[in-house]
Amino acid sequence: MKTKRLQGLSIWALVFFWVSGLTLNTQSIYHSKSTWETQDGRKASLVNLSGSDGLRGSPVVVAMLYTSCQASCPLTLSDLNKIKNGLSHEEQKKVRFAVFSFDSDRDKPQHLKSFALKQGIDLLQWTFFHGSPSSVRELAALLGIRFKKVDGGDFDHSNIISILDPEGVIIHQQVGVRQNPAESINILRRLIEPLK
User: Fold this and answer.
1) Which residues have CB under 8 Å from 43's CB, separation 6+?
2) Start-end of H helices in 47-150
3) CB 133 within 8 Å of CB 95
């Protein structure tokens, strides 16, 4: 009888620790219930993205922009590339880049894919996301990004690149465009180190 009770407790302990391992840090943006669509048309919430689109489990460099932007968004994309290029080829394999569009109306998945390919972006490490206006608002709030749609379909917005740890917690933010990427690169290297 005592052995059965100990076995029962052991099973419950294993279940508890298994479930605990699946829980997210309370500061994780992956708690968001918003749904997104990748440039390939796959739909999922942030935490449930899987395969080549998966974000959880890797350090992630996140930015929000829109593809028809002629002002700061090309500079943000350039800054993302500077961060990527500051990492070795092996380090790049351990980092995900996630770009979320402000423009729910025009930046549909196929358009995002065409944009990425035109920019020469490797979609094995990068994912572009389209979301509903409510999903965009929620993510922008989680990332501390302010934006507003203006006449003509453009957006006024802050320019922030966020570095997330493997559980989706914001570790660092690079604010503004044309910033020195050294601190972002060093933080990514520290996040990659335990994954080696």
Assistant:
1) 35, 36, 37
2) 73-85, 89-92, 109-118, 133-143
3) no
Assigned fold of 25-195: Glutaredoxin (3.40.30)
Does position 152 have pLDDT exceeding 90, yes or no? Answer: no
Length of the chain as a residue count: 196
- Domain range summary for the chain, segments of one domain joined by +: 25-195
pLDDT tens, position by position, 93-146:
999 999 999 999 999 999 999 999 999 999 989 999 999 999 999 999 999 999
- Token pair recorded at residue 188: 């990514």
Q: Which residues lie below 8 Å from residue 182, measured CB to CB, with a gap of 6+?
A: 86
Closest CA to 100 of 39, 191, 51: 39
Q: Are 39 and 127 in contact (CB under 8 A)?
A: yes
